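User: Please predict the structure of the protein below. I'd like the answer in structure-token form so I can feed it into my own downstream comparison script.

Assistant: Understood. Taking the following sequence of 49 residues as input:
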Amino acid sequence: PDFVKEAAIKAIRDGENQYSRSAGHPLLVEAIAETFELPTNAMDEVTVT
């Protein structure tokens, strides 16, 4: 479908075409960390599996 082609093209242009880090995609990790009531160092303290 065209929407899949367009999404693939956008991902390539935006550089989102590599494996994400093993602890989870940074945007997702940051979003999860924002839900905690305490200050959290997302990249060191949050893991998405």
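That's the full token string. DSSP finds three helices and no strands in the chain.
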